[in-house]
UniProtKB/TrEMBL annotation:
RCC repeat intervals: 63-110, 111-167, 168-218, 434-485, 486-536
Name the record gives this protein: Alsin Rho guanine nucleotide exchange factor ALS2 a
InterPro entries according to UniProt: Alsin, Alsin-like_PH, DBL_dom_sf, MORN, PH-like_dom_sf, PH_domain, RCC1/BLIP-II, Reg_chr_condens
Keywords in alphabetical order: Guanine-nucleotide releasing factor, Repeat
Amino acid sequence: MRPDESKSFAKEKDLTSPERGLLHVWHSAGPFDHLCPERVLLSRPVLQATLGEHHGVLLTQGGQVYSFGELLWRDLSIPVSAPLLEVSLLGKLVVHVAAGGFHCGALTEQGNIYMWGENTAGQCGLTDLVSEPCLISVVDSEAIPPAAVRIVDLACGREHSLALSSQNELWAWGSGCQLGLVTNAFPVLKPQKVEHLAGRHVIQVACGAYHSLALVRSLPPQNYNTQKCPEKKERGQSPHFSVTGKEDMFAVDEAHYCPLGVELKDTLTREVSIIIKENLTNQIMDMAYILVVQILSTARPLHSFSMWIHTQNLVLCLHPKTLSPTLYLQLYLRSYSNSGVFGPYSSSSPVCLEEVRLRLEAEKKELQWQKSSSLTNINQKAKTAANRRRSLPGTPTHGSPRRQRHCACRPSSAGGTQTAAHEEAGDGLPSLETEVWSWGRGSEGQLGHGDQLARLQPLCIKSLTGEEVIKVSAGSHHSLALSAQCQVYSWGSNMCGQLGHGSSPVTVPQQAKLSDGLRVWDVSAGQSHSLLLADGDCVQPILLYCGQCQESMPMGYISSVCSGGQRCAVLADQNVMGFISTIHELASKERHFYCWLSSIRKLLLNPLRNKGGSTTCVLSFCWSTLKSLFLFVYLFIFLSSECLGSQQITLAQLCASDQSVSGDVDLVSLMYWPLQQLHQYSRVLLKLAACYDVLTVEYQYLHQTANQYESVYLSLLRRKKEAESTFLFWKTHSGKIAEVLRLPHRRIVCESSNRSLTLQKAGRFSHHWFILFNDALVHTQFSSHHVYPLTCLWVKPVTEDSNALYAIKITCPEETFTMVASTPQEKNKWLRSLNQAVDQVLGGGGQGSSPGVAVMSRAASYTFTGDGRFKDAHYHGSWLGGRVHGRGTMKWPDGRTYKGNFKNGQEDGYGECIIPNKVLNKPDSYQGNWKDGKIHGFGKYKYANGEVYEGCYYEGQRHGYGMLSSGKRIRASSSVFIGQWLQDKRTGYGVYDDITRGEKYMGLWLDDQRQGSAVVVTQYGVYFEGTFKENKMSGSGLLLSDDDTYFHGEFSDDWTINGKGVLSLVNGDCIDGQFSGEWSAGLKVVGTYTKPAINEPENKERSRLFKLGQYVVPADQRWGCVFNECWSRLGCDTAGRGERTKAWENIAVTITTARRHSPGLSRSQSKVLECLEFIPQHEESVTTANYDNIRRYLIKACETPLHPLGWLVETLVTVYRMTYIGVGSNRRLLSQAVQEVLAYLTHFNSIVRFLFPGLPEDGGIIPDPPISPSTSRCVANSLEQGVVVFSSSSLLLPLLLPQLYPPLFTLYCLQQEQEEAQYWERILQLNKQPDQSLLSFLGVQEVCSTVKSVMLKTVSLLLFQIVSSSKDACFISAVETLQQISTTFTPSDKLLVIQKTFEELTQEVKPMLDDDFLWCMDDLLPLFIYVVIRARIRNLGAEVSLIEDLMDPNIQHGEMGLMFTTLKACYIQIQHESTI
């Protein structure tokens, strides 16, 4: 031992003895009076003890291993009170120890085995004596490559050792037939796999002196049904289980043969029939416990606290088959294994909750999908549940998570092993369908096969199949098996009475004789004695001894027992603060409950099943359709009367454990007994909580969980009483009304048959009967009745008036009435019952005890029955106080559907509606705003005939701005109208595009007819402006053809002239007179033909007649409906009249609503809307500091149509393009288009100034912000930079013009088409010349020679030298800059390009000039012409005209104005230059 280890060990010895994990050891020989248990004194709690012939091995907290007794391999004798520490195992994290006859074994957490002790038979896996623990490697040589095997369980006999792998395969080494290996060469020094159990799922192993036991999972029953009976094997051949590729299941022999060749007559066929026969019984037996587990799983836990009292984890712990009795207590009594704090008086709690949490989390990972134990999961896994149980209560390793982790890196060596392993992993829980296999020497009958023959290989003990064995233990010459029903089976030598029944040996398992009321939950077999740990009437476990002395030994709160040789040992705990006793009580109650369930199966279900006939069919149907235990209970009403008859004795036996049942017992009351378990859980949890301080979190969790269980228990009792009351109600009140109202889920709450409740203002002889069910309120009067669903029922108490009426007001979707109670107490009773029932049906707890008002706002479904708009309609959505309110969906029987917002019982807000059209067999659809049940606001309506209207509505009619598109589905032609509507008719200004005829009308309308001034253009270039009346041209008008032929005169019909007029031909000739006829077909003229002279002056009167625009609707009167809609969205009745604060609030509400109802917005769009939700500073005066903030806000607002300003811009762009694109691209519309843009700016500016009243008038100066005295000196230096002049065009044109630019610029190009052709021809010819020739042609030399000033002459010469020396690459930056004018949209941007071009020219010659030299535009004209020619700009005339028409008037006479004038002069100069 190293010095540091000695100091650590000495320090541990000085510590006080723990209060848990106390080990007591005594000899079993001699009378009981002389027995004196010896206490093992260790500072650490003992987790496990195991005994050999004359020695023992202990495992303590922290993974330390101790030995005591006669250690012959070391020639030492260690007293029990001072065991020896195995130093070589320190740090190995040992989790399990085993003791054989004269050797020992230890298992580490990594799955490694260490062996030491006597090794004469090779039982240590080595060749020599092993005095110190040595590592034994277990390698699967069949795997490719060979892989190490992880071991999870270990057992030792006198001359052999057995190990269980994580793949549930058995490995053996040592000597003798007890190995189960197919070999005659002993000793076996290396662990070898027991091939006879390959393909089986081994759960636990136990070693006797010269025999072995294995607990194995049974094969599924359905596997046996598909077996093909193989031929019998020859004698001596190993009867392995064969697995074929097609079967996926295990195949077994028809009959078993022992290694000696003796045929076993009890064939497997009988076993198959037993398992299949038990299938249905096992399922139904489990149902009695399903309710408890279901309630536990549905109880809502308090958050997800990682404590063992978590409701879901508690389900696993409370189930009697989740963990074995040994593991059950180990999980709680030994949960401190990784903690250094002991006892309740330390700063920690009595139990290390962290260790329990880790243990339960590991369990939950494996059992996660089944931990809820819901009925749905159970029904889905009905076939699996037929041969499995929720969990297997076996040894501690059964519940260990490491047993259920399978090695994925190695394949199974046997065909069925992997299948079985996966089966368990998929199920998540071990099975209770187990078998016990035995092999080795059988001279004392310890193998249990009915003889005293030896078995060289494992053989199944038939009599234990189906007994749900959960643990096996092997003594020297006898064996024990513990079942899930707490029964003990024993067989083998009985020389000292160790079997617990008589004194003669038995060769087949027999049930040990125990006193009534004892339930054994742990067993251990020694050399000639047995130890049993059982529950009795008291809380403390009862220790039972079977041997020479058979008296019980009270030794406190024992958690496990151990036997070996002539010694006995127990592990016990001190009951500090009642914690341990409460845990034992909890475990005892669960075992008692499971035993009761087993009695139900044995005494009740099995006889019913064996009865056959309709009973079995009913049971099967009940299992397949079961939804809750209450249906199962009602089934037994039939069974008790149909099958049991007067068998009260059987029922009395089943109710013997239920003290609450007295007198005659029926089957229904018996099946309700599991509900008592919930109350037991609550009581035990409260006792556990009492072990903690009330301020600790453990106390809070325990107390709250106990309250939850009690609440569930009381709720189920209440449901039981409701069911009983309902049964009595239907039995008492029979008739047609009762038959109509009777539903399976319906429960009676209260009723007014005693006339305690009546209708207000009811007649003297009227009879009103109110029945409150859990889902509806029923009002019956004579032979009629009305049902009011509670989901759509609102209850409100009426204040007592002078008439002393105790009234309750009931509000329903279609009716409101008042009920009057006879007394105040009756009123409170009904008010409380109504509120609780409504609250419960809405998903609440329904536990309110004080009268109040039920939830006013709720979501529910309802079908309207009364007359009205909603007749026969089904609604699902939100309600408020009896009216549809909020989001919902309304569906009518005829197919109409509305989905959207409601308010006060009517459609209000945004909604989508579908209206079927039976004639066209296609529905109309609408998406948009509603108000007071009518379409109101902006929306989009798609008609069944193909028309689509998108625009404004007012009280269900098209009113205001709107666009109607008509297709060819019904009409003969397709068309689009966009403009103003009034009461569902086109009235006001609008544009009608007849796409089929190729005509576009732009003018006034009245009552769906063209009426008033208008302009018409055709696809053939014909332009007409004039007046219309009754939908046709009537009155004066001006008509222009594409070849510039003009006519001004009277029209009587479309394109039909009738009256006086003047016709001007292209060559200038003129005809004045009376005209008649259609323009396209020919005219009849009576008048004067005039041919003007060559030098005749222009006729001003005639020019006035042919002037365009005289019959055109003024631009500021065209789209008033669009701007009115924008004002309406701001909350103003008319333009500029409204509250500014309300306008900003409407903007914020609109943006917020749009974000809520537009989930598909991108991140950038959401970010823009989020910025627009905030109302900017708008009341303060505008300064240069915040002017930029206003500009940025307007840019963001116009980017999204969800903002009123954004909608305005989008709509203006739409109407502009509809007007001037397509047929509207007529050059004679240019002036109208320009005037329309300017009108947009005027209206738009009025809206912006309304929102930001601090903006100055056009041309006004935007002041600087106030300057403090401290910064006045710094700011004074910056005043030279100039002032900021406000212009609406500079602020708003960048928002509008980029989107209006394509149609507008197209019109400019058409207008300048001839001039542009001439200009471009000159550009192409001039660009063919080199710079020298081009400069000479432009007259730069003449300019230089005519300059009088010496300085100017010098400059001109320098410029000429620069140009002449640079060849074609001169002033390239200026040329490229000027070319960018075609990529800009607004006049201000184009002017900036021109300014930058002049700056580039200045930078080129600046080094040659004096600092005080100033440019003159006349001097730069030839050079700028050169730059324009080299820039090759297409449609430069259109660019110049656009700038001239739309530029800011404030800069026309400034520097930029002069530069623009220079560019215009260059264009004119180039256009009129003669070519070289």
